[in-house]
Amino acid sequence: MAAEAGQALLRVQDVAVRFGGIVALDGVSFDVAPGRIVGLIGPNGAGKTTLFNCISRLYECDRGDIAFDGVSLLTVPRHRVAGLGIGRTFQNLALFRSMSVLDNVMVGRHCRSQGGFFANALRLPYAVHSDATARDRARELLAVLDLERFAETRVADLPFGTQKRVELARALAAQPRLLLLDEPASGLNHEEVGAIGELIRALRERLRLTILVVEHHMQLLMSLSDWVVALNFGKRIAEGTPAEVREHPELVRAYLGS
Amino acid sequence: MSKKVVTVTILLIAAACVLPFVVSNYRTFQLTLVLVYAIALLGLNILTGYNGQISLGHGAFYAIGAYTAAMLMDQAGMPYWATIPIAGAVCLLAGFLFGLPALRLEGLYLALATFALAVSMPPILKSHLLERWSGGVQGIVIVKPDPPAFLADVGIKLNPDQWLYYFALAIALVLFVIGWNLIYGRIGRALIAIRDHHTAAEAMGINTALYKSLAFGVSAMYTGIAGALGAIAVQFVAPDSFTVFLSITLLVGIVVGGLASLSGAIYGALFIQFVPNIADELSKAAPWAVFGIFLIGFVYLMPTGVAGAMRALLGRLGRGKLSPPKEALP
Ligand SMILES: Nc1ncnc2c1ncn2[C@@H]1O[C@H](COP(=O)(O)OP(=O)(O)OP(=O)(O)O)[C@@H](O)[C@H]1O
Ligand SMILES: [Mg+2]
Q: Does domain A2-85+176-256 have CATH number 3.40.50.300?
């Protein structure tokens, strides 16, 4: 295993999810050690996104447990997951399309800022201060992700690749410890794919992130990951270093479809 | 806020302060109702425009506010001004409580549930159980408030219509400032985020259930305060003033004025106050047909509401020198 017991930042244990007759996840277990980039691969419909949605609490597990930093997530309400330190992006962009880039990133910071309806209605000092901090922090992130010049642009008016960076910035705004990236390179052109790889690596160093990444772009994923978990039909079929998994017969069979 | 917006706002407020001295008493009374509707529309816009929850039942909250004020004045002898915050509080609670079960409903289903609220309001107000306080079908007549004595003491002479106008203007200003604070900050971003992408909003840590219920409560509070002010202005409440037609009129107001726009509430209020009158003058036989033509014309010519059209116009005048519109379109 990648990590000894108690060391894992994320521990997925025997997780099963079914939708009617479809078994999307069937007893999946693996650990994500702190500071690592773990790649999650598998053919279409293998259950990768479903697993992400279980971690985000968007889906309920039928069986098993998911623990973050030693605490089970399964009793945590959805809106508390971000506050615990788990950020994510979505396979099909899930941005707030009518809002500006800056506002999107500031929403990403919602769980780290204060001030409810009452405090905001009356502009109580702590709410104003918290908002100013959120704005500063969001602007910093825009600078890191080379999005500054789009700060006031409506997200819907931006090209796809830029929107993906906005989503990444939004996920980082809450200062997560664990980042879930669902196909960060999909829909990007060749240059952008190279850049996103660099960016993910740089972000891990700079923000001391642990990253779980789903990606179909094998070259990118294998070069990025310290550890790879392979799923097929909801089951874990292989796990190991990129070099080990690449040669794994189960994986070869899954991708060749025989 | 840009300097230009501040200047324009101050000029508009100054103009609003002068108006009662240059127009007739009847027009002043009509302008008071414009302020009342603007407050109601602002409330509905927070819910429907910014948060994406469609309400066909805000007339019910308007009615609750109106009756709260009327009953407190009539039964408890409370001064008119004291009834306003109470009507607001009652509607805040009523809206929040209605918002809780409404969480399970989306889009058209929510529209139907709120529609049910609107159609059930007149019979509830007429019911025998409430008749002792609500005056049944007859409703309640309210005395028109006089300007406070201290104004006369310092030499400001106002007639009751003028006084009521300023009273409504002051309340509207306070409520618009609060609305501005809510929308252009953490809460407004969260409300729009919920409208734009519910799941992502939740994943970003927004307690969507709480925010949606609170949006309902705040929205109802605005509309309830408008109802109370409206009742005091027209000096009368009766069940048949608050039919589902009122609810639909309010919805018309936010769409014509501009969804998800604070200034849209004012344009919408002008529309629902004056266009029916104009229609009536144009055709005594079929005023509502004329109203319908106006409505189609507005929606056709200004698909993002008057506020959207104004924004586009200002943008063109400023040749892009104006900062891009801050107000989000749905
Ligand atoms: N909400 C849902 N309702 C019903 N079935 C679902 C739902 N979500 C996922 N599934 C099914 O679960 C299975 C796994 O889907 P999932 O999206 O997790 O696959 P994936 O590994 O992310 O695939 P891809 O690489 O295409 O994104 C699929 O058969 C899918 O149709
Ligand atoms: Mg997927």
A: yes
